């Protein structure tokens, strides 16, 4: 794999993992449209896992203090207000402290549906889903419409401290659908949060925090398999470059999206997804792609 391809794909992954446009769907689309088919399906998937490891590093680094505070609070330690940006830590009531302590457990509950779906549908996700360009394009459009509906019907009033067990399960089930390329893990979870009346900032923060254990689990599982099979010598540099670039771009994407959604809607992403889906369908027909 040429280094320039590794850089382009890493940028796509870093942006698409956190901006709600689907990283897996865009990686497949870019490869298919540009004819980048030098890698075998197994090595292509291994490279994508390396890119996911890069974005895992970015979300871990961005939320490093938040994760420490979440775990410390959940285990009975000092509680600070980590769930919303710009909120004061002073004079937390007993009820507010209880709400902050529950966040780790709600994140753990929300992880369960995605973990189960990943285990049951692992081979379909790796083989069947990745080969159907029309499925990816359709998912881009359908989730865009759901995002629009979530923005329309949601009250956007519930802070992250008021998230409930039902909210966690709904968002967790939505994350499970992200196994289908084109759905977008961040897009599905943020949209589910809006349907559950979370504020945009609360929805995006819960989505990003929720991504950490799932990306980590998938990356570690595939890394173990890759370690057993070995990585071709000529893939080592592209993998290292891909990890570095996806980590840097992912960090920038997280920081930008959190600030953006504090005062803006998802409209730009809704429009982009619909246009991208239509364009991909048109190109697929023109280029006779499946």
So how many helices? Answer: 13
Low-confidence spans: none
Order of helices and strands: HHHHHHHHHHHHH
Q: In percent terms, what proportion of residues is strand? A: under 5%
C-alpha Rg (nearest Å): 19 Å
What distance separates the N and C termini?
24 Å
Average of the residue pLDDT scores? 85
Oligomeric state, counting identical vs distinct chains: single chain
Q: What is the overall silhouette?
A: globular
Counted up, domains total 1
Q: What is the number of beta strands?
A: 0
**Broad structural category:** mainly alpha
Quick one: biggest sheet?
none
Helix % is: over 70%
Brief account:
The protein contains 13 helices and no strands. The protein has 290 residues and is an all-alpha fold. The protein starts with a helix and ends with a helix.
Please tell me about this protein's structure:
- With 290 residues, this protein is mainly α.
- It has one domain.
- 73% of the residues lie in helices and 0% in strands.
- The chain has 13 helices and no strands.
- It has helices at 3-16, 23-34, 41-62, 64-74, 94-101, 103-120, 122-128, 133-153, 165-176, 185-195, 200-229, 236-261, 267-287.
- Helix 3 (41-62) packs across helix 11 (200-229).
- The protein is globular.
- The two termini are 24 Å apart.
- The mean pLDDT is 85.
Properties at a glance:
mainly alpha; globular
Show the helix and strand layout.
Elements: H1 3-16, H2 23-34, H3 41-62, H4 64-74, H5 94-101, H6 103-120, H7 122-128, H8 133-153, H9 165-176, H10 185-195, H11 200-229, H12 236-261, H13 267-287
């Amino acid at each position: 794999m040429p280094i320039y391809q590794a850089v382009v794909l890493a940028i796509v992954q870093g942006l698409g993992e956190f901006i709600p446009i689907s990283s897996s769907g865009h990686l497949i689309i870019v490869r298919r449209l540009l004819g980048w088919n030098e890698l075998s399906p197994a090595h292509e998937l291994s490279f994508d896992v390396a890119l996911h490891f890069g974005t895992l590093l970015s979300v871990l680094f961005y939320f490093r203090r938040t994760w420490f505070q979440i775990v410390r609070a959940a285990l009975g330690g000092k509680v600070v207000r980590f769930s919303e940006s710009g909120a004061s830590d002073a004079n937390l009531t007993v009820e507010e402290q209880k709400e902050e302590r529950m966040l780790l457990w709600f994140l753990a509950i929300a992880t369960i549906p995605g973990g189960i779906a990943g285990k049951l549908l692992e081979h379909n996700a790796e083989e069947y889903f990745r080969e159907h360009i029309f499925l990816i394009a359709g998912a881009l459009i359908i989730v865009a419409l759901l995002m629009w509906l979530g923005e329309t019907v949601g009250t956007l009033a519930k802070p992250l401290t008021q998230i409930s067990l039902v909210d966690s399960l709904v968002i967790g089930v939505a994350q499970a659908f992200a196994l289908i390329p084109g759905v977008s893990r961040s897009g599905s979870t943020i949209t589910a949060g809006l349907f559950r009346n979370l504020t945009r900032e609360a929805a995006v923060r819960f989505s990003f925090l929720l991504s950490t254990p799932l990306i980590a689990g998938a990356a570690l599982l595939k890394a173990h398999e890759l370690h057993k099979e070995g990585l071709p010598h000529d893939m080592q540099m592209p993998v290292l470059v891909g990890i570095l670039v996806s980590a840097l771009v992912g960090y920038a994407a997280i920081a930008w999206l959190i600030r953006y959604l504090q005062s803006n809607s998802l409209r730009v992403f809704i429009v982009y997804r619909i246009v991208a889906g239509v364009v991909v369908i048109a190109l697929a027909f023109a280029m006779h792609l499946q």
